């Protein structure tokens, strides 16, 4: 568990900014016909220029710099020879370490034109993140975040991928507490002021069941349905959270 303090907040902010800038660099250069490895190379070069390192590679020996998941791939997509096509949904998930501190964020980018279902899925997932940020306040219960995400996703006719959750972070990728995207009645502990967490709705257009691919990293929807993923690293305050990974 990492708590933001006057001594470390500048480091947290710098890590968050480099993550946000890396995602934007990758998003701007994303185009149909490129491979996920080519997109990952763009992120790798950008991080290196800013003195940052891939946290998944550093902590877990992930075989890439960033996680790039396409359409039915949900999270932890390994960059490779998969070609990005019009109609795909491309999730860019960047977790970076800078000067001993880590931040994490993700966006899902539509490769136009996309289906109406894809558009609605993106809107639902983005809206769920906004709703979660509205309730992420000091002294409110941790499960208020999951309740907000689940309520919004269900209202829009989609499905939470329940095994995949947000998390604490700061000095490593995954710290306490776990931050489920659904209402967990036992998680009543109050959110502590200064707590650093990643909120990340991960949503399916199908039944929400998942499988791990043969590479032992990439997680996909079991039914082949589309998925979307939006994420920010935040600091809990008594008011609106500080969003470290927002440009």
Description:
- It is a single chain.
- With 247 residues, the chain is α+β, with helices and mostly antiparallel strands.
- The chain has a single domain, classed as Creatinase/methionine aminopeptidase superfamily (Creatine Amidinohydrolase).
- Helix content is 30%, strand content 25%.
- The strands form four sheets. Strands 8-7-9-14-15 form a five-stranded antiparallel beta sheet. Strands 1, 2, 4 and 5 form a four-stranded antiparallel beta sheet that branches. It has a three-stranded antiparallel beta sheet with strand order 3-12-11, with no helix packed on it.
- Helix 1 (9-29) runs antiparallel to helix 2 and helix 4 (116-135) runs antiparallel to helix 5 (143-155).
- The protein is globular and about 45 Å long.
- The two termini are 25 Å apart.
- The mean pLDDT is 98.
């Amino acid at each position: 568990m990492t708590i933001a303090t006057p001594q470390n907040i500048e480091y947290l902010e710098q890590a968050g900014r480099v993550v946000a800038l890396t995602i934007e660099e990758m998003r701007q250069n994303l185009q149909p016909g490129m491979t996920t490895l080519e997109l990952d190379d763009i992120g790798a070069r950008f991080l290196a220029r800013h003195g940052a390192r891939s946290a998944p590679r550093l902590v877990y020996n992930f075989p890439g710099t960033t996680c790039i998941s396409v359409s039915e791939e949900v999270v932890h997509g390994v960059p490779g020879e998969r070609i990005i096509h019009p109609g795909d949904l491309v999730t860019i998930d960047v977790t970076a370490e800078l000067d001993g501190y880590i931040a994490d964020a993700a966006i899902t980018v539509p490769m136009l034109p996309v289906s109406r279902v894809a558009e609605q899925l993106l809107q639902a997932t983005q809206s769920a993140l906004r709703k979660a940020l509205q309730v992420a306040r000091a002294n409110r219960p941790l499960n208020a975040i999951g309740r907000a995400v689940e309520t919004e996703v269900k209202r829009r006719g989609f499905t939470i991928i329940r095994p995949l959750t947000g998390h604490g972070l700061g000095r490593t990728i995954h710290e306490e507490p776990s931050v489920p995207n659904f209402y967990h009645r036992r998680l009543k502990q109050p959110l502590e002021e200064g707590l650093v967490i990643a909120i990340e709705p991960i949503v399916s257009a199908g039944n929400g069941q998942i499988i791990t691919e043969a590479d032992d990293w990439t997680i996909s929807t079991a039914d082949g349905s589309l998925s979307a993923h939006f994420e920010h690293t935040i600091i809990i305050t008594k008011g609106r959270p500080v969003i470290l990974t927002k440009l």
